[in-house]
Amino acid sequence: MPTTRIPRGLPRFDAAAMAELAARLTPRDYDILAHLHEHRVLTTHQIQRIFFAIPQSTRRRMGILHKLHTVTRFRPWTPYGGSAPNHWILGRAGAELLAIREGVTVKEFGYHPDLAMSISVSTKTGHQVGVNDFFADLHYHARHAGAEASAEVLAWWSEKRCAKLWGDLARPDAYGRWAENGRVIDFFLEHDTGTESLNKVAAKLPDYAELADATQITTPVLLWLPSRARETNLRRLLATVEVPVATAIHTSLGDGPAGPVWLPVNHDGPRLRLAELADAWPDLAHTATKQDEIDA
């Protein structure tokens, strides 16, 4: 159960109040709200890695957004003592502002007043946080790549958006597009926590082959695994795959998932950087997914 009470009785917002509130938000604030809407929940650490330079600035700004009712938060219970970080969720006022910007009602926008409570008690929240860690680390690397390097998260689509687009064929945990030093790689992410059998994990891959056949776009699948032993055992099951697949172990060290941690199936090594996977399958007729075409 969360240790921080989620407020239920929020003030009513009229047009004048919303206009005053909107004037107090920065473009970065709106980006944070949009990310919370797309990706459901982000920890303070993740928000810092994506948007801020230091923890103090992150905590200060998120505290202000909380007082303005644009975000809400909870802190998960930890069984062995210590303190879990704040987990941030889009608040009612934030949803209203985003809905106004899109010219729709809050209901049409897809926000429900019980969203915070449902996320705080969901058994899937830990998995979602793990997926979001992956992309927060990519954002962090892109922001600290250095003057002689260039890197950028060009796309990060949630499981919900992926399900809406492709759920009748495949259900990735996320879709991403990563660019680094002139290379661009599109990928589907499967974030593995070790709770499913390896046979069940391997059984997901034919779905991606069906998706590639249906869309005529072959997109690599990245399997992000919790241990070296699990990776080794899973790779034994993947001797024959119909789509390009690469595996790596959860890490935030070094360059994290952007770094040389990826090993394509049927390759002996060395491990490649994420962007280098763009050249890992020379026979792949890979067409980069175009966001404008998919959105259309």
Task: Report what the structure shows.
The chain is 42% helix and 15% strand. The protein is an alpha+beta fold. It has helices at 15-23, 27-39, 44-51, 55-67, 92-102, 106-109, 115-121, 125-143, 159-166, 198-202, 205-215, 228-237, 291-295; strands spanning 42-43, 71-74, 87-90, 151-157, 174-180, 183-191, 221-225, 245-249, 263-264.
The portion of residues forming beta strands comes to 15-25%
Low-confidence stretches: 1-9, 286-296
C-alpha Rg (nearest Å): 20 Å
Alpha-carbon distance between the termini?
Answer: 41 Å
| Main beta sheet | 6 strands, mixed
Shape: globular
Number of helices: 13
The chain-level structural class is: alpha+beta
Order of helices and strands: HHEHHEEHHHHEHEEHHEHEEH
Number of extended strands: 9
Strand order of the largest sheet: 4-5-6-7-8-9
How would the blueprint of this fold be written?
Layout: H1 15-23, H2 27-39, E1 42-43, H3 44-51, H4 55-67, E2 71-74, E3 87-90, H5 92-102, H6 106-109, H7 115-121, H8 125-143, E4 151-157, H9 159-166, E5 174-180, E6 183-191, H10 198-202, H11 205-215, E7 221-225, H12 228-237, E8 245-249, E9 263-264, H13 291-295
Parallel strand pairs: 6-7, 7-8
Antiparallel strand pairs: 1-3, 2-3, 4-5, 5-6, 8-9
Helix pairs in contact: 3-4, 3-8
